[in-house]
Amino acid sequence: MARRRSPSPPPPLAPSLRSDARRNRELVLQAARSAFEEAGLAVPLGEIARRAGVGTGTVYRHFPSKEALFRATVVDRVRLFTDTARELAHADDPGAVFFRYLSAVVRLSVRNKGLCDALEGSLEPSPGVEEGFREALTVLLERAQQAAAVRKDVTIDDVMALLMGCLSMEQRRGPAVAPGRMTALLCDSLRPGRHVTKLPQNPAVRRNETGCAACGGPVRVSRTGRPARYCGGACRQRAHRERARARTGT
């Protein structure tokens, strides 16, 4: 009995077909970048295909969904923010570095609706990318706090929420408002100083801690005796000097 031959593998794609596929994929990516930049995730996939000059089926052959196409267009930009933050992790003057970095992220993102959507978490661009950005920004925040350039009661969740709010405000500012004004207000809200508003205690903070009356940092409550108001001697002395100046009017 003659042995049945196994089916031969399909012939490889011709070089011209492979080059056409690569060209179509790049056209789709270019069209998607501009479309997502203008409208974010709300842009229809058919509009992207129209801008690329290809059919919707061609888009699906390269990207199984609009979400996958979105990830491909913004993941590199979010990673660029993350890589930049990591490069600045040991830079001198951590306070100035932190504020310049926040300002740069807002300035580079505010005109890109897709990037704003990615940073806001409407859709994570790729597994681990948003977490990597938060971790890198956390390092800059903690170094700035150690340098006494940022309030000690500020958390990374606070910074992320303020960053998203700042992007929204910069996008919606009127023509009479100068670009970057909202960003400057954001940065000032994070700086320590006199007469700053004491933040409500974060529920995640342990119940046996309270906020320092001078700097807002955590103060461990003693089990016995009168609860402490300050995190240390320096804050206690500063509060004493301010009370003395208030009494004398100087």
UniProtKB/TrEMBL annotation:
Which controlled-vocabulary keywords does the entry list? DNA-binding, Transcription, Transcription regulation
Family matches, as Pfam families: TetR_C_43, TetR_N
What is the top-level taxon of the source organism?
Bacteria
Return the PANTHER family for the record: HTH-TYPE TRANSCRIPTIONAL REGULATOR BETI, HTH-TYPE TRANSCRIPTIONAL REGULATOR RUTR
The UniProt record lists the HTH tetR-type domain at 22-81
Say if the entry is tagged with keyword Transcription regulation. Answer: yes
Q: Which residues form a coiled coil?
A: none
Quote the InterPro entries the UniProt record gives.
Answer: Homeodomain-like_sf (IPR009057), HTH-type_TetR-like_transc_reg (IPR050109), HTH_TetR (IPR001647), Tet_transcr_reg_TetR-rel_C_sf (IPR036271), TetR_SbtR-like_C (IPR049445)
- DNA-binding region, as residue ranges, is located at 44-63
The entry lists its GO molecular-function terms as:
DNA-binding transcription factor activity; transcription cis-regulatory region binding
Protein's UniProt name: TetR/AcrR family transcriptional regulator
